[in-house]
Amino acid sequence: MAGPIRSNPIAGSSRQQPAYKVQPPRPPNAWILYRSDRLKELPPSKERRAQADVSKLISNMWKNEKEEVKLEYERMADAKKAEHQRLYPSYRFQPMKK
């Protein structure tokens, strides 16, 4: 027996706007930039790695990284933050309540 037939809401001619306001993303900090770069450099694994395990691995790499490298990522994060401020001048981080 086949499952229920569902309509595709996107296929309709009248698109509805979401009821919530879409917030711009937060600017990445030094750790996020470092993690993104190192994630691309990790050798592929036969088995899928959990993101928590990947973060632990890269976190150890960050802790053992030279101070010059960390400072470079801090500079990159500052540049991203300045660009974010230019693009979204009225942005203010407001965490959502759970």
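(ticket continues) Second input and output from the same batch:
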Amino acid sequence: MAAAPPAPWIGSVAGESVSWPGVDGSHVADWTAIRQNADHPEHRWWFNAKSTSLEIPERGDNTLELLRNLSDQLRDHLDANPAPVHHIHHHAPWSGQGNKNLKTRRLRLRPSTEQKEALRKAAGIIRWTYNRAVAYLREHPQATFHQVRQHSVNEEHLPEECRPWVTQVLYSIRQAAAKDAHIAQENGLQSVASGQIPDFHLEFRRKRAMFSSFKIRARDWRNGCLQISGLGLGTGPGKSRIGYGNRVVEVKHDDAIIKQENGRWFLLWTEDVGEEELAIPAALGPRMCAIDVSARAKADRAAHG
């Protein structure tokens, strides 16, 4: 079987230089001789500007015009369809509870292998509760939180085959998941009614998501121990404590969050740091001002005559 002919681009550049190895290897000997002959003018390198003259590929005259037209079309499309404005500040250092003295703390947890499995189990049950509330809200968009909780959290309304493993997570934690779904539904409907967004569709939480979280009460975390019975976190301070170093963490407010990010677990909670620990105490605000540089220089010259 005959060998396939060389690609067109190889043939187009093979004859551009006497020093370029040809497709059939005819120039290899010349190239080797050049490399070995120190007196040869092209000894330094066989591929240089002196021995090559590749042609610049031709371009159509209308290329720039086409690019300008595409840019104009894209600009018109973006002007007609502006991106939605999101007022959520993901890196805001302060909580949005109206109290600027509440600061959110974040601490990485280091659970054991058994504790990781227990936390994943709890996160799965809470995701199931949230998705059950979402499914109910899709059918009943105007449902009250009492109705959502009764359908998604109360044991008597759960499927009989799911009760043994769903009820292993405390009622209060599952109730918080249902409340999150109801709040998301209310906020979405209000945004549609005010014209901020054209429509709203509450989404389910995916099992394969790299991020998951659930809320706990202050009394569910005592002395560095996450107190969720029936999940295999262990019993007693020595076994149920989730490692985080030597620091003793006390959760004093409800709605603390156990969060998973890419396989790592974190505890997020709020603390009342007091005004003296703020970066800029609110009481000092009226006494702070900015001085223009030119005005300050003029005042210095006047003071020194």
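Agent notes: Strands lie at 102-109, 211-216, 221-222, 225-226, 256-261, 264-272. The longest helix spans residues 113-139. Closing as not reproducible unless the customer responds.
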